[in-house]
C-alpha cells in the first residue's frame, strides 16, 4: 500500500458496503502518514455527497485513520470545545488517488465534556439487511464500538488531552 507524505493534500473517499461512493472530502492535509496511520487536517473543505450535493465543512478538523482499526475519528475544533465524530468503518487504504474506507453507518458523537451518544443504529440495521453485511462484519463492528467507548473513557488516542494541540499546531504550520 502507498503511503501519503507529510504536507501532501489528499482526498478522502467514503464508500458503502455495496461499493457505491458515499461521500468525498476534497482535501485533507497529511500531518502524519505511515502504512498503519494517517493523521490529517482540514478546514472549510468541500464535501460531495453521493447524490452530487456539496457542502463546506464549518470548522478546522483533525482526522485520524488507522489501517487496523474499524473506525475513524474526526476531531472538530469549535469555539466551545472539541467535538468528535467517530465513524464505524473498514480500516483505510491509500492508493495515490485517495484515502478510502467503507462507512458502516454506526457513529459515535463525543461532546467536549467527553459524554457520547451512539448514532444511526436504525440506519445500520436497515443497511445490514439491504446490503447483506456478513455476520463477521457485524461482530467486528460491535467489538469496535466497545473499543471506541473504552478509548473515550480512557482518553486514549485522539481523545487524549494534548492530541488536538499537537496536531492542530502541525496543521497550522503546513497551511503557511
Automatic annotation (TrEMBL):
Catalytic residues of the enzyme: 23 (proton donor)
GO MF: magnesium ion binding; nucleoside diphosphate phosphatase activity; ribonucleoside triphosphate phosphatase activity
Pfam families for this protein: DUF402 (PF04167)
UniProt keyword list: Hydrolase, Magnesium, Metal-binding
Record-annotated membrane-spanning stretches: none
Chain ranges of the DUF402 domain: 18-156
Essential cofactor(s): Mg(2+)
Catalysed conversion reaction: a ribonucleoside 5'-triphosphate + H2O = a ribonucleoside 5'-diphosphate + phosphate + H(+); a ribonucleoside 5'-diphosphate + H2O = a ribonucleoside 5'-phosphate + phosphate + H(+)
Tree of life domain: Bacteria
Entry's EC annotation: 3.6.1.15, 3.6.1.6
Binding-site residues for Mg(2+) 2, renumbered to this chain: 105, 107, 120, 123
Record-linked Gene3D superfamilies: FomD-like
Catalytic class of the enzyme: hydrolase
SUPFAM superfamilies xref list: FomD-like (SSF159234)
Stretches of the chain forming a coiled coil according to its record: none
UniProt-annotated binding residues for Mg(2+) 1: 87, 103, 107
Record function comment: Has nucleoside phosphatase activity towards nucleoside triphosphates and nucleoside diphosphates.
Protein family per UniProt: Belongs to the Ntdp family.
Cross-referenced NCBIfam families: PRK13662.1
UniProt-recorded name of the protein: Nucleoside triphosphate/diphosphate phosphatase
Protein source organism: Bacillus salacetis
Higher taxonomy: Bacteria, Bacillati, Bacillota, Bacilli, Bacillales
Amino acid at each position: 500500500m502507498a503511503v501519503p507524505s507529510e504536507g501532501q493534500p489528499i482526498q478522502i473517499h467514503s464508500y458503502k458496503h455495496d461499493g457505491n461512493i458515499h461521500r468525498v472530502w476534497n482535501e485533507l492535509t497529511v500531518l502524519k502518514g505511515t502504512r498503519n496511520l494517517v493523521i490529517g487536517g482540514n478546514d472549510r473543505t468541500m464535501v460531495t455527497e453521493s447524490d452530487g450535493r456539496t457542502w463546506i465543512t464549518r470548522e478546522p478538523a483533525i482526522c485520524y485513520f488507522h489501517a487496523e482499526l474499524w473506525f475513524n475519528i474526526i476531531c472538530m475544533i469549535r469555539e466551545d470545545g472539541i467535538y468528535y465524530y467517530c465513524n464505524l468503518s473498514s480500516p483505510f487504504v491509500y492508493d495515490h488517488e485517495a484515502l478510502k474506507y467503507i462507512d458502516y453507518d454506526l457513529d459515535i458523537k463525543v461532546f467536549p465534556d467527553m459524554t457520547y451518544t451512539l448514532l444511526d443504529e436504525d440506519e445500520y440495521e436497515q443497511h445490514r439487511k439491504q446490503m447483506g453485511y456478513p455476520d463477521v462484519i457485524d461482530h467486528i463492528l460491535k467489538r469496535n464500538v466497545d473499543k471506541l467507548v473504552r478509548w473515550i473513557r480512557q482518553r486514549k488516542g485522539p481523545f487524549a488531552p494534548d492530541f488536538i494541540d499537537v496536531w492542530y499546531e502541525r496543521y497550522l504550520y503546513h497551511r503557511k
